[in-house]
């Protein structure tokens, strides 16, 4: 599990270390880790052309000290000072001692032929988009050939939310200090951070603001069946989705549930013929949920319509004391009658994309974690807000940010697949927030595997779910 932290949490954790270590020691740890990461990325130091973009704060100090270390190893280092009077004095002196060049004119900073560019403009102290001089330097860096490495946080990205208001540094790698900041993995920040590398500063960190699951975490939540298991014991999921005219959502959702946890899946609804034809393993009825037989969790909504019959099915399912995943058309129904969810005591997982989220009556600004958390608290439910970094928030404030997936998942029907995956995990008895977070992780991995073979369609994601489960542990089952 990777903990995700806010800038304030990191500053607070730094205080006792700053108090008990000699001045500048923490920055030395950060800069040494940064220089080491850069050496690993470019492979050598001798002859490598490095340009440092240096702002007025300690983020610039990190860049200057790391630049000094690289210059000491034989790199040709140029520092571009964006606020010359306020550059970190000790870092600047160290760079000069190591033979680095210092310039104040972006045109003279060698960005057109740099091998490596270090963005030390702003870190956790940055506010808003980049100011004009910084934005100009970043544009020159982007136009040049250098590997773009952000120091702590890509400048222009809000470390807490991932919001980008204006220009920001589009890093290929971010070397971050002490803890991974929330804004590096969510919203526009995720796209600007590239690959995130963590330098351990030995901080005593509090409970994280949010979390990200690893493959190993998800594998631990999905134990293999044992000798004592039967088809019922791994959890039976019920699916109510699709329609006779549009059976696709039902077929995808049922298939995803089967491919995630193959014990038993029951389908109830008017797409029964289509589901029977596609998945002979499913137990199918064309009746209502109550006719389906016993289940441990329900998925309701994908392709199910919003008419009176759909409303009555949703109310029937939500009136049970079982975990229920509510998606797609059923979210529209919930937006009209939120008390259907608020009144429940059993867990409910809502899986909106952005438009469905706003239809539910919640504001969606650039702070996706904050928005999902507010919606979950207001509805007393688990909210899975889809996107390139899906956010899962629980009513108690627990948040997971998903780290898997691919933009190729932006294709029709992949949301129906996600519902089936999460529904199957809910039926195993996992807490709703864990089922949702693990389901998003698994769905993303299946998407990545499918995309490796070329542009994917939703059925490909279903087909790759077993391999995704298998790959979580890399063990042969
Ligand atoms: N504490 C420690 O010991 C350690 C700290 N560490 C490092 O310190 C970093 C935090 O340093 P920090 O607090 O000095 O703030 P920082 O991120 O450099 O930014 C502030 C400067 O940016 C400027 N600025 C703001 N917005 C801007 C914009 N949009 N566009 C352009 N400029 C903008 C702002 O200008 P001002 O508003 O003052 O005019 C101010 O000068 C942290 O991320 C980590 O790298 C590590 O070494 C570990 C040990
Ligand atoms: N740009 C993207 N990058 C990664 N994943 C994406 C992207 N766009 C969408 N997705 C994922 O694809 C799925 C789409 O779901 P949804 O919008 O409900 O589709 P549908 O309603 O067609 O089934 C979600 O899991 C979402 O997180
Ligand atoms: K930076």
Automatic annotation (TrEMBL):
Keyword Transport carried by entry: no
Positions contributing to K(+) binding: 59, 119, 155
Textual note on the cofactor: Binds 1 potassium ion per subunit.
Annotated binding of AMP, by residue: 386-390, 415
Keywords: ATP-binding, Isomerase, Kinase, Lyase, Metal-binding, Multifunctional enzyme, NAD, NADP, Nucleotide-binding, Potassium, Transferase
Gene Ontology process terms (BP): metabolite repair; nicotinamide nucleotide metabolic process
EC number: 4.2.1.136, 5.1.99.6
Transmembrane segments: none
Reaction(s) catalysed (UniProt annotation): (6S)-NADPHX + ADP = AMP + phosphate + NADPH + H(+); (6S)-NADHX + ADP = AMP + phosphate + NADH + H(+); (6R)-NADHX = (6S)-NADHX; (6R)-NADPHX = (6S)-NADPHX
Molecular-function GO term, any one: metal ion binding
Residues annotated to bind (6S)-NADPHX: 58-62, 123-129, 152, 249, 303, 353, 416
CDD domains: YXKO-related
SUPFAM superfamilies (alphabetical): Ribokinase-like, YjeF N-terminal domain-like
Domain YjeF N-terminal per the UniProt entry, residue ranges: 4-209
Family indicated by similarity: Belongs to the NnrE/AIBP family.
HAMAP family recorded: NADHX_dehydratase, NADHX_epimerase
Stated role: Catalyzes the dehydration of the S-form of NAD(P)HX at the expense of ADP, which is converted to AMP. Together with NAD(P)HX epimerase, which catalyzes the epimerization of the S- and R-forms, the enzyme allows the repair of both epimers of NAD(P)HX, a damaged form of NAD(P)H that is a result of enzymatic or heat-dependent hydration.
Subunit and partners: Homotetramer.
Record-given protein name: Bifunctional NAD(P)H-hydrate repair enzyme
Organism: Klenkia taihuensis
Lineage of the organism: Bacteria, Bacillati, Actinomycetota, Actinomycetes, Geodermatophilales
Gene that specifies this protein: nnrE
């Amino acid at each position: 599990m990777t903990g995700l932290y806010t800038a304030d949490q990191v500053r607070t954790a730094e205080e006792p270390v700053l108090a008990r270590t000699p001045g500048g020691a923490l920055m030395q740890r950060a800069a040494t880790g940064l220089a080491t990461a850069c050496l690993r990325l470019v492979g050598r130091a001798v002859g490598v052309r490095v340009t440092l973009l240096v702002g007025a704060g300690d983020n610039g100090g990190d860049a200057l000290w790391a630049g000094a270390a690289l210059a000491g190893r034989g790199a040709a280092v140029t520092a571009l000072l964006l606020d010359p009077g306020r550059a970190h004095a000790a870092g600047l002196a160290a760079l000069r001692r190591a033979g680095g060049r210092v310039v104040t004119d972006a045109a003279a900073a060698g960005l057109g032929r740099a091998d490596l560019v270090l963005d030390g403009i702003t870190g956790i102290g940055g506010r808003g988009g980049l100011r004009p001089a910084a934005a100009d330097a970043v544009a020159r860096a982007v136009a040049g050939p250098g590997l773009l490495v952000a120091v702590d946080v890509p400048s222009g990205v809000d470390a807490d939310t991932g919001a980008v208001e204006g220009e920001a540094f589009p890093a290929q790698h971010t070397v971050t200090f002490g803890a991974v900041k929330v804004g590096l993995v969510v919203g526009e920040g995720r796209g600007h951070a590239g690959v995130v590398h963590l330098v351990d500063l030995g901080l005593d960190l509090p409970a994280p603001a949010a979390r990200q699951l690893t493959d190993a975490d998800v594998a631990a939540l999905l134990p293999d069946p044992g000798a004592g298991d039967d088809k019922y014991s791994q959890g039976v999921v019920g699916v109510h989705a699709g329609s006779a005219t549009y059976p696709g959502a039902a077929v995808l959702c049922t298939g995803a549930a089967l491919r995630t946890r193959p014990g038993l899946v029951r389908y109830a609804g008017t797409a029964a013929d289509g589901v029977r034809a596609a998945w002979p393993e499913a137990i199918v009825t064309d009746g209502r949920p109550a006719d389906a037989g016993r289940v441990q969790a329900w998925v309701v909504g994908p392709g199910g319509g919003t008419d009176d019959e759909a409303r009555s099915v949703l109310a029937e399912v939500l009136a049970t004391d079982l975990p229920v995943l509510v998606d797609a058309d059923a979210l529209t129904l919930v937006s009209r009658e939120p008390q259907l969810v608020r009144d429940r005591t059993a867990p409910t997982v809502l899986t909106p994309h952005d438009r469905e989220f706003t239809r539910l009556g919640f504001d969606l600004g650039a702070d996706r974690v904050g928005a999902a958390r507010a919606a979950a608290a207001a509805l007393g439910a688990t909210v899975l807000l889809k996107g390139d970094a899906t956010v899962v928030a629980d009513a108690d404030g627990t948040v997971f940010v998903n780290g898997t997936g691919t933009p190729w998942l932006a294709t029709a029907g992949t949301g129906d697949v996600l519902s089936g995956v999460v529904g199957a995990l809910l039926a195993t008895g996992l807490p709703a927030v864990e089922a949702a977070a693990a389901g998003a992780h698994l769905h993303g991995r299946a998407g990545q595997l499918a995309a490796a073979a070329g542009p994917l369609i939703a059925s490909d994601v279903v087909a790759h779910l077993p391999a995704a489960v298998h790959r979580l542990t890399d063990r042969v089952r």
